[in-house]
Amino acid sequence: METTTVVRGFIPVAVINQPCRKFNNHQCFSIMAKKLIITKPTSRTQLVLSKISVITGILYVSLLLLLHLLEPGFDPSWRFISEYALGKSGWLMNIVFLSFVVSSLSCGLSVFPQVKTIVGYIGLIILAIGAAGIFIAAIFNTDPVTTGPDKLTFSGKMHYMGASLDYTPLAMLLLAFGLGRTVAWRPVRKKLLVAAAIPILLTIAFMASMPADYKFGPGVYTGLIGRFLFASYLVFILMVGTHVRRLYATGANR
């Protein structure tokens, strides 16, 4: 078979001397037709970052579940998770947010070398902005959800500003599209898209559940949806971490 070279990171006619060794004929045709990008081998640094992402991701969800047991006074149906910071074990909620920040940033850094498209880079930027927003939310505690707009404290205003920067679901969707343009990540493209779609749908449900008069109480389920939304980020994080480890173990693209 004639050897061809990679032009600008794309496969022009054939995969270099190895289409039938690593891929079947259908996969080879798909790669050539869609001009998938060949990326560098997954490094040990990426592997370490993926492990940090997974560990801190599991940590933030586990601590959030623990807070439901430690702070039963907060009705999970309509009280926001941020309000756990106002309870006796409030410091745990701050750790929940900080753990998520580490998990999110580590997740983004673990795939940074594989991101080669504008869509993917935008996703990384949005992911970083979201992490910065949650960091602000972790430093400044919220006010009770029943607090009127004219009675918000400085800390409460800063918390809401930080939380408003959390566009993590959009970042995950863009990353799924961006990574899906590479040979290494193409096999899990659909799974990543589904994992990103879940928090996006929950975000829509979260916004739709907001009472028109912004008066929260029994019968409002914004808090419950918000819990599922925040926890759903872990699905994408786990999928990315698992695939990074698989790529490293198999020496993909080496």
Explained architecture:
- With 254 residues, the chain is mainly alpha-helical.
- Helices cover 61% and strands 0% of the residues.
- It has nine helices and no strands.
- The protein has helices at 19-22, 25-34, 44-70, 90-111, 118-139, 154-163, 168-179, 189-208, 222-250.
- The radius of gyration is 21 Å and the shape is elongated.
- Mean pLDDT is 88; it is low at 1-22 and 29-33.
Number of strands: 0
Helical fraction equals: 55-70%
Oligomer classification:
single chain
First-to-last CA distance: 20 Å
Write out key terms for the chains shown.
9 helices, disordered N terminus, 254 residues, mainly alpha
What is this structure's SSE topology?
Elements: H1 19-22, H2 25-34, H3 44-70, H4 90-111, H5 118-139, H6 154-163, H7 168-179, H8 189-208, H9 222-250
Summarize the structure.
The protein has helices spanning 19-22, 25-34, 44-70, 90-111, 118-139, 154-163, 168-179, 189-208, 222-250. It is mainly α and 254 residues long.
